[in-house]
Every structure is written in structure tokens, then in C-alpha cells.
Amino acid sequence: MARAGVFRTPHGDIETPVFVPVATQAAVKALPPKDLKEMGVSVILANTYHLHLRPGEKIIKKLGGLHKFMAWNGPIITDSGGFQVFSLGFGLEQGVGKIAKIFPGEKKNKKIKGVNCGRKNFVKIDDDGATFISHLDGSLHRLTPEKSIEIQRNLGADIVLAFDECTSPLADYKYTKKSMERTHRWALRCLSVAKTRNLQALFGIVQGGAFKDLREESAKFISSLPFDGIAIGGSFGKFKKDMHRVLEWTIPLLPEEKPRHLLGIGGIEDFFECVDRGIDMFDCAAPTREARNGALMIRQGRLNILNSAYKTDKKPIEKNCQCYTCQNFSRAYLRHLFLAKEILAYQLATIHNICFVHNLVRKIRQSILDGKFQKFKKEFLKK
Amino acid sequence: MARAGVFRTPHGDIETPVFVPVATQAAVKALPPKDLKEMGVSVILANTYHLHLRPGEKIIKKLGGLHKFMAWNGPIITDSGGFQVFSLGFGLEQGVGKIAKIFPGEKKNKKIKGVNCGRKNFVKIDDDGATFISHLDGSLHRLTPEKSIEIQRNLGADIVLAFDECTSPLADYKYTKKSMERTHRWALRCLSVAKTRNLQALFGIVQGGAFKDLREESAKFISSLPFDGIAIGGSFGKFKKDMHRVLEWTIPLLPEEKPRHLLGIGGIEDFFECVDRGIDMFDCAAPTREARNGALMIRQGRLNILNSAYKTDKKPIEKNCQCYTCQNFSRAYLRHLFLAKEILAYQLATIHNICFVHNLVRKIRQSILDGKFQKFKKEFLKK
């Protein structure tokens, strides 16, 4: 199912498969746009919910839109705020991500501690939309499909997402079905207000949890609508292999000519396994977040740069890596910067991690064009 | 007294007058070397005391020296640790900098709070050297003139400084004289161990506080020795004008062919007033530190980017500024990044501040070459 393609936007072409760095608050953390350009990043993803709260989409519009605001002249995707319906709601309450990762012997997931809001979670959902409590100041905010599209229109991204409810991997069949049906009604409402969308592409979102019939129903329904692309939202079950099954149920039912974006997923193995199942686009905050924690991506997994083994290590993070960091700095220097809490540590680590995943997905694309994807996948994953 | 010159080092020429960004822990805070090169910075200053404590000069030597360690192939200056004799000693105890800034009505300077070491200050001085309590872990460290030169030799900078005692601006005549005489004895010891210095230039340091006869004595003594350049150390009295007087006493007694470095000073007015009195080199941590606090340098002084007046301000920080930040981003965007505590805020602000002072000193140099320094000074300072 692996495929290479091009999605054209008013701000340039997106060659797929592609990794999309996350710029939650209109900035890829610790990276100026010039560094992203330098490493060949073509498209980034910003966050409707966060930008609505601060600085507010009206201010961004007044300043000329998101591209001008953040000085990024390439394509931009904005998510719809739908993921926050989950992450600030059930996700926070149950302490889970899109994949639950319950391991044998553990009865239930741990609760996340430190929520200092005085409420159980930050979101209440009804059929019309969702009410959020701002994580910044506790104020109330309301998102509906119409409002989400309006905000995204003001932001002015090239690709906007339909407003959905991302269900918890711990939700039961009944709730997941009810939620999926609501997401479908919201999809229609998004299309209705976005029909004069001109240059803004609108992607629909497939939901249905880890239930085969729901995923199939959702894939068929979303495919039947005039979206410009299809995103596949969580939840994906308890383990990574559950996510693979979800993709195997969903993707064969999607129209071939539309790009497929797997929302919020971006591990090394995921790129291979999900491209293999027909995914074109990935976004994920992990490479930037891990960089700031000193977890540097290497072919074998992660290198914890704080480890004293690197105290006098002259080698770059990853042999043969062409990124600015690996071309100029040793592990010993990076470790020193992390221990000294120098801001430069976070910059150099982020450059490496983003470069690493960007180049890996570029290589995957090239291997597809060369007809050698399966060979590349096998070789890469065995190491 | 204003003059333009060139000081040649093994890692390139330093055109003076010059502003030297501070890279205390082998990194200019929030700036990768490529950004420094991009803005035309030629030379940086790293800190012997800090690098001795972490990661240790032996590790840096093992990794190929400071240039290779931090991937900076231009000239590097290392200070001697002498400034820490003051800043962690009397400076901390009395809560003062190189200029005391006691204003009428204030009886004495405020003590700095929050020293959690359980001791009054971090340094004890004797005639042989100084014993430091590490600010990192409380361990004891000893610096002598010989040890300081040895550390600086291991670091491998192009220009190293003699080990001195920087006295407090609150010290009396008697102590300042005693300390200056000790600094002179230390200067001889530094020269003695550095006589095989080959490619490393050694600068002597003039002390003497704000006392005319001591400054003159120190200027004459340091000038009589075979140093490659002369640094002028604090203290400089209670007000900026006291510093100007110190320079007027000192500089006419210095050899004309040697560069003159004013240690730790770098305000906008200082560049004009001190170049006017014959200074060639400045280093100062203020532009980078202020940048991280959102104080952005403009011709009129400082712009506090957190001010709500900039909420929707489309203008760059400074009109006509050629730095990457001003060429690409609005005040409104920078304010957003600061409010959101994005690491990118500190990077972009630092780029601007360093670019601003670097270019200002470059313009001062050009005005000297054009015979228009006095005109430029008058025009700039009246605004």
C-alpha cells in the first residue's frame, strides 16, 4: 500500500510520505523557520485550540494570518481542536494517550497527577460542541464545528481539519459508536460552513476507536463526503499492533486520490508500518519534546545524552547524519550543554531530532519511488 | 582618542573597536555559532572559572580544545577567573557590580538575597591566589596565577588574561592599593609561566579602583611588561562618569600599539564614550541576558516586549535593523512567544540584541575610518 505523491497547496507542494513538525503555539519549539527550511521541512502543523486562547485568531488575522505571523511561507496545517476534546478530557482523566498501552498485570492506567484546576478535567462535550476550561487562566471557551472552521479560516492555514471527538482507547463500544456518529454529524456541519473554502483544503477525520465495524462505517462515511483529504484520528487501541489493524480496516475504504494523514503518530517504526499500510502524512510532537529532554534519535532508538558514557565522546550523535548539530558538535559538547542547562542544548538537540525523522521519511519516499521500500523497511527495522 | 585597528590571531583578525559576545559556558546563550557568523561576529569570550568547574579544561583539551569543542573557528578570548574573585566575593557580599551606583539618599547597597551556600561569600583571597567554593556543588577550588594560565592554556583560546583581583567599588584606598599591588605581583607570575606562550596572546590587567594615583601607577606598571594587550578591569567608582575619569587617567599611559580591552562593560553610551577615550574591545553579558528577559535594544534604549502596547504591533523591534529577527518577525509575534515562554523567543531576541550592539560598534569603527566619529557620536546620543 506504500505510495509516493504530491499535494499542492497555495504555499507550495507537499511531497508525501511526509513528516509534519508540530508548531503548537505558532512556533516549532526551539527552531526558527530558517532552520526548518535549511533541513528541507516543507510543511508544519499549528494548533487551533492553543492559538485561539493565545494570542487569539483575530489578532493573527489582523497581523496578516498565520504564515506572516510566524514567518513561515510554506504550507501550514491547523488541527481543529478536536484532539484537545480528548487530551484535556478523557485523556487527562484516564491518564492515557491515543494508544492506551495497558500491559498485562496492570489493572488500570495511572491517573495523571498535578492537575491544578480544581476540576476533574478541562472539557465537557455535548452534541453541539465542546466547552473547554482554558489551561492558561481557567476561563470558559466553546468550540463547535462552525467555530473551529471560523477560527481556522482566520488563521489562514493551507489545510484545515474538521472538528471531531477523539475518543479514549478505554471507551467502550457503545460510547465510541455514539461519539463517532457525533463526529460524522460535525463533519457535515464543517463541510457546510467551509463550502466557500476557496484555497483552504479541508480534511475529514475518520474515528471509530479500535472497533472494526465502526472504523469501516466511519471510513465509508467520511470517504463519501467532498473532503480534500482524509485524516485518521485516535483512539487506536491498547497496543501498536492494534493501530496497524485499524489502518488495515480503514485505508482500503478510502479514495485513492486523496492524501491520508495519521494524526499525532510519529515513531520510527510507525513511519515504516503505517506507510506500508497506505499513510501519506504524519505529525507528532515527540521528536521536539524528546529533544528537549535529551533523548536524541539514533538508528538504534534513543541516546540519552545525559549519560556519563558520553562525557568525553568525540562522536556526533549519529554517524553519517547530515544535520548541523552532527556536522559540528560532539556528544560530549551536547552533554555539557544539557548539564549546564544552556538554551543552545535544546536548539541543537531539536535540530537533530527533526532532521532525523524528516530525512528518514524522505528516504522512505525515495525508496518507494525506487521500488525498494520493502527492502529498506526490512533492513532498517532489523537493526 | 578614538581609533580603528586590527589584532591578528591564529583564528583570524579582530577588527577594532569590537564588541565581544560572552560565551560563559562555551556557548553564547541561545545562539549557535552559525548565527553568530551570519551576523558577522568575529570574536567571543569564554569563562575560565565556569569551564574549569564544568566540564573541566582537561576534558575540553582532550576533545581538541575550546574552538573544536564549541565549533567556533574564530578568535576566542578567555578571562582568567579574576572577575569571579570579585563577583563571588565582595560583589556578592556587598551586592554591587563594577560600578557601585549608590544614589543620593541610599545609605548603602542592598545585599543580594538567596545565597544558599551557608557561607557569606564564595571566595577567599590570599597573596598566593584565591580559593573558591563552587557555585555548582559547594566543592573547594583553588586558582592561582599559574593555575589560571594552565587552565587557559588547556582551553586553547587565542587571547588569555592575566589573573587579577577585581576590587569592589566600595573598597577603600588602603585595600584597593594592597589589592592592586597583589595584582601586579600576579601579573609577573602569569608572564613567567606564559613566556613560552607561542600562539596564545596574553593581556595584562590594569586595576586601581577609582583612585587616580593607583590607576596611573597600575597603567605604568602593566605597560612596562611584555604583554600583548592591556585590559582595564573594574572597579570604576560609583557612577558612569567615574569610569570615564578612570579611562582618562589610564589610557594615555598605555602603549599605543597594544589593543585595550575594557572588561565587562557594554552599554550603548559606553561604546561611544569609551571608544572616544581610546578603548578598542568590549565584552558584556548584558545584551544576551536582557534579551532573555524581553528587554530588546533599540536606538532609544530598551523596548520591553511584554508591554501590552505591542499586542498587535506589526513593526519589527527596530526600524531598518537588518537582523534575521527584525527582517522576519513583528513585535506582536515576539510578545506572543515571550508570553508563551517559547524557547524561540529567547533565540530571536538574542539574535536582535547581539546584532544590534555588534552593528553599532561596527558603525563606530567605520565612522572612525571615515573621520566622522564625533559627528556620529553626537547624532546618535542626542536621540
The greatest interface here is:
A-B, 40 and 40 residues
> Which sequence of strands runs across the widest sheet of chain A?
3-4-5-9-10-11-12-13
Q: How many strands appear in the DSSP assignment of chain A?
A: 15
Q: How much is the average pLDDT of chain A?
A: 92
Number of helices of chain A: 15
The tally of domains of chain A stands at 2
Layout of strands and helices, then pairs:
The structure is a homodimer of 383-residue chains.
Chain A: E1 5-9, E2 12-16, E3 18-23, H1 33-38, E4 44-47, H2 48-53, H3 57-62, H4 66-70, E5 76-79, H5 82-94, E6 123-125, E7 130-133, E8 140-143, H6 145-155, E9 159-161, H7 173-193, E10 201-206, H8 212-223, E11 229-232, H9 240-250, E12 260-262, H10 268-276, E13 281-284, H11 286-292, E14 295-298, E15 301-304, H12 324-328, H13 331-339, H14 343-369, H15 373-382
Parallel strand pairs in A: 3-4, 3-13, 4-5, 5-9, 9-10, 10-11, 11-12, 12-13
Antiparallel strand pairs in A: 1-2, 6-7, 7-8, 14-15
Helix pairs in contact in A: 6-7, 7-8, 8-9, 10-14, 10-15, 11-14, 13-14, 14-15
Key descriptive features of the protein:
383 residues; three-stranded antiparallel β-sheet; TIM Barrel; homodimer; 2 domains; eight-stranded parallel β-barrel; alpha/beta; 15 strands; globular
Molecular structure report:
The structure is a homodimer of 383-residue chains. Chain A has helices spanning 33-38, 48-53, 57-62, 66-70, 82-94, 145-155, 173-193, 212-223, 240-250, 268-276, 286-292, 324-328, 331-339, 343-369, 373-382; strands at residues 5-9, 12-16, 18-23, 44-47, 76-79, 123-125, 130-133, 140-143, 159-161, 201-206, 229-232, 260-262, 281-284, 295-298, 301-304. Chain A is α/β, with parallel strands linked by helices. Chain A has two domains: 16-284, TIM Barrel (Alpha-Beta Barrel); 292-382, no CATH class. An eight-stranded parallel beta barrel of chain A has the order 3-4-5-9-10-11-12-13, surrounded by five helices. In chain A, strands 6-7-8 form a three-stranded antiparallel beta sheet. In chain A, α7 (173-193) runs parallel beside α8 (212-223) and α14 (343-369) packs across α15 (373-382). The longest helix of chain A has 27 residues, at 343-369. Chain A is globular, with a radius of gyration of 20 Å. Chain A binds chain B through residues 25-34, 54-55, 59, 62-64, 69-71, 292, 311-312, 314, 324, 328-330, 332-333, 335-337, 339-340, 342-344, 346-348, and chain B through 25-34, 54-55, 59, 62-64, 69-71, 292, 311-312, 314, 324, 328-330, 332-333, 335-337, 339-340, 342-344, 346-348.
